[in-house]
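User: I'm designing a mutation panel for Plastocyanin-like domain-containing protein and want to avoid disrupting the core. Could you give me a predicted structure to guide residue selection? Please restate the sequence first so the numbering is unambiguous.

Assistant: Good idea. Sequence first, for numbering, then the predicted structure tokens:
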Amino acid sequence: MNGYGPNGPTFRVEQGKTYRFRISNVGLQNSLNIRIQGHTMKLVEVEGTHTVPTTYSSLDVHVGQSYSVLVTADQPASDYYIAVSTRFTTPVLSTTAILSYRNSAGLASGPIPNAPTNEIEYSLNQARSIRTNITANGPRPNPQGSYHYGNISVTRTIRLANSAASINGRQRYGINSVSFVQGDTPLKLADHFNIAGVFRLANIPDNPTGARMHLDTSVMEAEFRSFVEIVFENNEDFIQSWHLDGYNFFVVGMEGGIWTPGSRVNYNRQDAISRSTVQVYPHSWTAVYVALDNVGMWNLRSEIWARSYLGQQFYLRVYSKVKSTRNEYTIPGNVLLCGRAIGRRI
């Protein structure tokens, strides 16, 4: 934790006071679980969204995710273990930090708090219990009043299935049978200058095709101010984590098995959590709603670093025909031009 090994970092507290801990999983591939010996954690915030205050004895934090919890120093003045361990891995990797009371009477002792079992159901149920606090003040996206996401008509459904394959004798990962490769020019510059040959629009389908995986600079076109349903489908034994730059989305559904249109019956249309990174359990699906109100070229990727690096990403081009600084700022005059954009004028 915080760059230290076992028992490295120490967090000092005073008896009777309550502290906010912001927990972030900045790892490359493993989901984590955190516990504090003898204490509970009250979840109050997820990636900028106020949550319904819910108390947990342990909390799963998947790759790329962040949480704020309140911890009250309500135990006898002593030192206590803060334990973190990997989830769904063999072997389980663990480390510890120390929660140290002022005037502590002794060092941390006793058994380190046990981690949950590797069963998916515990983590899935916990994820479903995390909900937006609709009574709290906060910026959009906000399910109160006129902007109630559950009453907005979905204009498009996009199903994204991750997969792995060998291409030209090398390991690759893909989405809807497309494994992303970088173009020779930054995509935003290519789009701004309308440079041909860097990428093609609609070269990644809206639904899994079952076709053989291939390489491409995959860009999906989307309409500005549309309201989109994205279903992440994971048919592998591997837990996934997905992030969309430039946006938060409402996590309306999460379940094992195969997604069908009938799965929408069980969506949370009232107080689903709004966040930017979401997990998808093995052989499961996760559905999100997103209001595409941010013009630009946005990366949608697996937060599992090796998978993203080897092709499990693409760009979502949110486009408006109206060129206005109300929708998107102009490119700075001192932008560095490279690739096929060299010599162009802003």
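For picking mutation sites, this is relevant: The CA atoms of residues 18 and 64 lie 26 Å apart. The radius of gyration is 22 Å.
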